[in-house]
Design a protein that fits this description.
26% helix, elongated, alpha+beta, 435 residues, nine-stranded antiparallel beta sheet, ten-stranded mixed beta sheet, Jelly Rolls, single chain
Length: 435
């Protein structure tokens, strides 16, 4: 487009009345498909520039100053050379108005088409490729996951966040999807990830048990491991954790130590520490809160509503359970990260379900116990422990049982034994007993 057509288009879009010749010239130009396509591209460029200026107040200020200077120069030039006065032909005024209306309508069409092209695409939801299992929920294999979902990779899994973060998860890697559009974030609980981040597209962070990794457009690996302990009751001890960060390109700011450390291309660093945890006996438990009596104090922990796993584990606890709670602090409150523990109880079978058994201990409401999950997805042969399901089917409702459990996404039954009812023995008679 030449400068004249650009000026006419601007005036039409701003609602200025056009003279008959100008209106006809603009209408004829926009009738050409090539010029119309060029006009749409130009309107798109104008919108992009306006958006950038809105985001940068300094740029907007300078642009306004330049526009103001141009207006002053234009007015001075007009005062020195006044335009010739043209006689008004009153008979042509309706024609001018009709042509102006047609041009305005055509300009509106151009604007609508340009707005359609300029409409931003919806932000991409988190995507996964491969088999995963959501923790705290029924087994499934969704492609679309939601933020705050915690899942474990069954085999290798690829995940994409925001269109600029490509993440590979090794088998048995456990993560939670967090963050928000253009500020992507995942929490790596255990396992190994490899991430590739496109620069200048948005932020990306990885939260580990020891702290935060701030990623600058890069490719890197992170591994979270828990050294094996020899304790028979490892759940009642503080867990040592090891975080390894290796950078292939770019840079990663590791806020895992004091002071923070920046790793560049080729750097590899291992950080070690312990998870904050508390060990003791459950005093009170509900769906959202758990109170734990430790050796020296009494602490209250909360389950974040969006954390399905924490909610499920908190609601499974009962007073008297001996557990260890791993937690993190947010706005002065302790939030449940993991619950570990094991125990034995005796009770009455009140109900049986395809996925578990309900047992009631005297003075408490019934509890649901499910077998451990073994293997991968159901289509790959994975499922609840079949041997334990057989034992559950063999236990009649109303029978007294002895049950052992361990914490893993709620209470998992690890052993089940039906107790024989106690028989009342007849006291032997003596010569002194009355007849």
């Amino acid at each position: 487009m030449n400068d004249l057509l650009v000026e006419l288009l601007l005036r039409a879009l701003d609602g200025e009345p056009l003279e008959a010749g100008d209106a006809a010239r603009l209408q004829q130009a926009l009738a050409d498909p090539a010029i119309r396509a060029e006009a749409i591209a130009w309107v798109r460029w104008q919108a992009t520039a306006s958006d950038q200026m809105r985001q940068n107040p300094e740029t907007l200020r300078r642009s306004r100053e330049r526009l103001f200077a141009k207006v002053i120069l234009r007015e001075k030039r007009a005062s020195l050379t006044p335009p010739p006065v043209r006689p008004v032909n009153r008979r042509r005024r309706p024609v001018i108005l009709l042509r102006s209306a047609a041009v305005a309508a055509l300009a509106l069409v151009v604007l609508v088409v340009a707005a359609w092209f300029l409409a931003p695409a919806p932000y991409q939801s988190p995507l996964t490729e491969g088999s995963i299992r959501l923790l705290g929920s029924l087994p499934g294999d969704p492609r679309h996951i939601e933020r705050e979902d915690r899942f474990v990779a069954i085999g290798g899994v690829e995940m994409e966040l925001g269109g600029y973060c490509d993440i590979e998860l090794a088998e048995n890697t456990e993560v939670t999807v967090k963050g928000s559009p253009h500020k992507e974030k995942i929490e790596l609980h255990q396992g190994q990830i490899r991430a590739r981040v496109t620069p200048r597209k948005g932020q990306f962070e990885v939260l580990t048990p020891l702290g935060l990794l701030e990623v600058i457009g890069t490719e890197f690996e992170t591994i979270v491991e828990y050294p094996v302990t020899t304790s028979a009751k490892s759940w009642d001890r503080d867990r040592a954790v090891q975080v390894t960060v290796a950078v292939s390109s770019g840079a990663v700011i590791c806020r895992l130590s004091d002071p923070p450390l920046t790793l560049n291309k080729g750097d590899r660093r291992v950080f070690t520490g312990e998870l904050p945890s508390a060990h003791g006996s459950v005093v009170a438990a509900a769906e959202a809160t758990v109170t734990l009596k430790t050796e020296n104090s009494q602490l209250t922990f909360h389950a974040a509503p969006a954390d399905k796993l924490a909610v499920r584990e908190a609601s499974a606890l009962r007073p008297g359970d001996q557990v260890s709670i791993e937690w993190y602090e947010h706005e002065g409150q302790r939030y449940i990260q993991n619950v570990r523990g094991e125990g034995t109880l005796r009770g009455i079978v009140t109900d049986k379900q395809p996925r578990g058994i309900e047992v009631a201990v005297e003075g408490q409401r019934p509890q649901l116990f499910t077998p451990h999950w073994i293997g991968g997805m159901p289509r790959d042969g994975g499922g609840l422990d079949r041997k334990m399901l057989q034992q559950i089917r063999a236990a009649p409702i109303g029978a007294q049982v002895e049950l052992t459990w361990s914490m893993s996404e709620g209470k998992r039954v690890t052993g089940l034994r039906v107790l024989e009812p106690e028989k009342t023995r007849e006291k032997p008679k003596t010569p002194f007993d009355p007849e």
